[in-house]
Design a protein that fits this description.
Beta-Lactamase; Alpha-Beta Plaits; 5-stranded mixed sheet
């Protein structure tokens, strides 16, 4: 009888061990399946990010990728973008209130936190990071972001920026697999951001931060082909600062450069993201307006004219004022067989505006 009891006991133990082994096996399988799933996602994201040279679109894709993969509501990215401004600032954020963009968080390039993240480019849990004495003061600046995880973006031995992740919607802490995924994603993101940044720098006019002439010509040709193929409207604005040579002779070239920069900023602030503003040459600007009827393009040009006219340009004891003239044309595939015709009609309208008194908008009908 005792022998039967022993056999029964051994049998129960064997079953228990088998169940435990099966449970461990299933857990290992689940872990490997999750790893494969993450790797597939990572490869897909890496390909997507590396093929996107549009800087703003790329940054937005990085943030949405983080939100979708980590199940977070709030995410922000601090970047070092401007050659003339080497510090790190919030370039884009998702999940925060509408007024959040007015609150600038800037980390100096030489700050202890930046040096620390550059030397330790693994993801850092914020509650641990803020306990690190050497960087605690810098971490205080990031509290506005309600951070849970800080992920450095490093490529070519340079810290390009950092991704700041808020709490997970599940309420769970970030696990090791989360950190590993974000570490790999940040590598892809850092390389993609650097490539896109270099491309952006190569296509932007250094002074005005508008697109250069060559880039404008390429994008205009693309826009014309797209308009013709999709049968959508397309307009072009050409503008010129009135009496700019006289202004330069009177106030100097440094003052003239300041006017160019601020007029460019007014242009960028008064057009859509899909519009393409360029420095056409000297004091002349061009704006490509996709999917825009002539009447709407005239409205945009009129708004720009008024904004420049009322703007107070600093640099002297008293604010200075300048005006601009603008010419508008709408793409017509029947007559605009090449860019030269389309640009020429906008340019012709511009010179009519200048010859009829300046500070005007003229459209080529």
């Amino acid at each position: 009888m005792d022998c039967h009891m022993d056999e029964h006991y051994i049998s129960e133990n064997d079953r228990s061990r088998e169940e435990n082994n099966l449970g461990m096996y299933e857990k290992r399988i689940a872990k490997h399946e999750r790893k494969i799933y993450d790797l597939k996602n990572l490869i897909s994201l890496g390909i997507s990010l590396s093929s996107n040279l549009n800087f703003e679109s790329l940054v937005e894709s990085i943030l949405f990728s983080c939100m979708g993969q980590m199940f977070v509501e709030k995410v922000a990215i601090l970047l070092q973008v401007d050659i003339d401004e080497p510090n790190y600032y919030i370039h884009m954020a998702k999940g925060y209130d509408d007024n959040f963009e007015d609150k600038k968080i800037i980390l100096r390039e030489d700050s202890p936190l930046v040096h620390y993240l550059a030397s330790k480019p693994d993801p850092h849990v914020f509650s641990d990071l803020i306990k690190t004495r050497s960087v605690a003061d810098n971490c205080e600046a990031l509290k506005l972001l309600e951070p849970e995880l800080i992920v450095p973006m490093k490529s070519k031995n340079m810290l390009n920026g950092m991704i700041v992740l808020g709490k997970k919607m599940t309420g769970e802490p970030y696990g090791q697999s989360d950190k590993e995924f974000m570490h790999d994603l940040a590598k892809f993101a850092a390389i993609a951001v650097e490539n896109s940044r270099l491309y952006l720098m190569a296509t932007l006019d250094r002074m005005t931060r508008l697109y250069i002439h060559h880039y404008f010509q390429e994008r205009l040709l693309e826009a014309m082909r797209r308009s013709r193929r999709r049968k959508t409207s397309l307009c072009l604005i050409m503008s010129d600062i009135d009496h700019f040579k006289k202004f330069n002779d009177t106030y100097g070239h440094q003052q003239g450069d300041l006017v160019l920069k601020e007029v460019a900023a007014l242009i960028k602030n008064n057009i859509r993201n899909i519009d393409i503003p360029a420095r056409y040459g000297g004091e002349e600007f061009a704006i490509i307006l996709p999917e825009t009827e002539l009447s709407d393009a005239i409205t945009v040009a009129s708004r720009l004219r008024k904004e420049v006219e009322k703007h107070q340009f600093p640099g002297q004891d008293l604010p200075l004022h300048v005006t601009i003239s603008l010419g508008v044309s709408q793409y017509n595939p029947e007559i605009d067989h090449e860019k030269k015709s389309f640009i020429g009609r906008a340019d012709s309208a511009l010179y009519k505006a200048k010859n009829s008194g300046r500070n005007k908008v003229v459209a080529h009908k």
